[in-house]
Design goal:
It contains ten helices and 17 strands. By secondary structure, the protein is of the alpha/beta class. The protein has a six-stranded antiparallel beta barrel. The chain has a five-stranded parallel sheet with strand order 3-2-1-4-7, with helices on both faces. Strands 9-8-11-10 form a four-stranded mixed sheet. Helix 2 packs across helix 7.
């Protein structure tokens, strides 16, 4: 517990460095930048280039729907229009640029996972899996092949070394853009070979910097907020297309099993949802539970949706090697949700029970719960079971 106490008591002013991880490995010279074609990754390449790093831009070709025109685009991070923007930016910076094909891995590890989870009544976060399986495991492997010491991405987060010697992720200096939540599963090896140059920046300052540097088109691009491979319709439409099955209608029920109406298929819903239910019950209804085996969607009141105890599996720890004793920290159960104080109780090396200090709505199996001490990631895991 001493390691965690040191972490909890650590307090330091924000560093003036543009990037954080370099302080742990000053020998880093050649860096692979994961280029999405957006403003953030372009800014990363520009910052590192201006600071005399040997920069190589790599875009990952991830997704193209079968039967779609090879030249079609939708403006996300997976399409060919984004690749073209990344290539143009690298030419402008006089940075070598390569496209690497990860489509097969992306389809297997991210897309198929996404479909399976929704069909099983869970709500996945594909960005977390993509970060772990592709943007780090895949990109780091390729970077080693070309002699690079590190990779850099456009995530708004910071890397810090703790008094216990371990590396962890600290939230971005400006919390409105913080992306630490989706990075909790990175390993110590990942962190030791990663740079996050944007951790101390405001997004508006990044846009201004890139506009001043002559990247006019990219500086005006909107942030990508949707699931990059769902290009048309809803995620439920995408799942139906992938599985070649129309969503099977079933019953809305209350907690006692009384039939309330008919739903459009469980892949259309997530725990905590209240919009788009298309049912009038005389009160504001929330999704309490999805039951794939009986094809039922359980509805109830907001008060009934409030929960405070749940379990996580496949836990990974960053600030410590493993958690051996219960600890009080802050927990985020969704990307945009405010952290809630909680006690994290280890059940074994990879499973924990989480007891929130206050009940919240929307604790959804399949989502990630990320544990923080102050601004630092302790660890996290996949929500599997809601207890009370």
């Amino acid at each position: 517990m001493n390691e965690l106490n040191m972490l909890n008591s650590q307090s330091e002013a924000a560093a003036n460095l543009l990037w954080q991880a370099a302080e742990f490995n000053p020998s880093i010279q050649k860096v692979v930048v994961g280029m999405s074609g957006g403003i953030d990754s372009t800014a990363v390449a520009y910052i590192l280039k201006q600071n005399h790093y040997d920069v190589i831009g790599i875009s990952m070709k991830l997704w193209q729907e079968k039967g779609k025109d090879e030249l079609s685009s939708h403006g996300g991070c997976c399409d060919l229009d984004a690749l073209s923007d990344a290539r143009r930016a690298c030419i402008q910076m006089q940075v070598p640029f390569y496209v690497m094909n990860f489509k097969q891995t992306f389809e297997k590890e991210v897309v198929d996972y996404f479909v399976r989870e929704y069909q099983a009544g869970r709500t996945p976060n594909p960005c977390i899996i993509c970060n772990q399986k592709l943007k780090w495991e895949g990109l780091l492997q390729r970077s080693k092949m070309i002699g690079a010491q590190a990779i850099a991405t456009g995530h708004y987060a910071r890397i810090k070394q703790l008094p216990n010697g371990r590396l962890t992720i600290q939230k971005a200096l400006y919390l409105e853009k913080d992306q630490s939540y989706v990075l909790y599963s990175l390993s110590q090896e990942n962190l030791a070979r990663t740079l996050f140059p944007l951790g101390n920046y405001k997004k508006k300052d990044v846009r201004a910097m890139m506009a001043d540097a002559g990247f006019t088109r990219i500086s005006r691009k909107k942030d990508s907020e949707d699931i990059c491979f769902v290009t048309e319709g809803t995620h439920a439409d995408f799942i139906a297309g992938r599985s070649h099955k129309k969503p099977k209608t079933g019953n809305f029920v209350d907690k006692q099993g009384h039939i309330l109406g008919t739903h459009k298929g469980i892949t259309n819903y997530t725990v905590g949802q209240r919009r788009g239910l298309s049912i009038a019950l005389g009160y504001r209804a929330y999704v309490l539970e999805l039951r794939p085996f009986t094809n039922e969607v359980v509805l109830g009141t907001y008060e009934e949706s409030l929960k405070s105890v749940f379990r996580t599996d496949l836990c990974k720890f960053m600030a410590v090697e493993k958690l051996t004793d219960p600890i009080t920290c802050n927990v985020k159960i969704r990307y945009n949700q405010k952290p809630v104080e909680a006690k994290v109780i280890p059940m074994n090396d990879i499973q924990c029970e989480i007891r929130l200090s206050q009940a919240v709505s929307g604790i959804a199996p399949g989502q990630s719960a990320v544990f923080y001490i102050d601004d630092y990631i302790l660890g996290g895991g996949i929500i599997t079971e809601i207890l009370e």
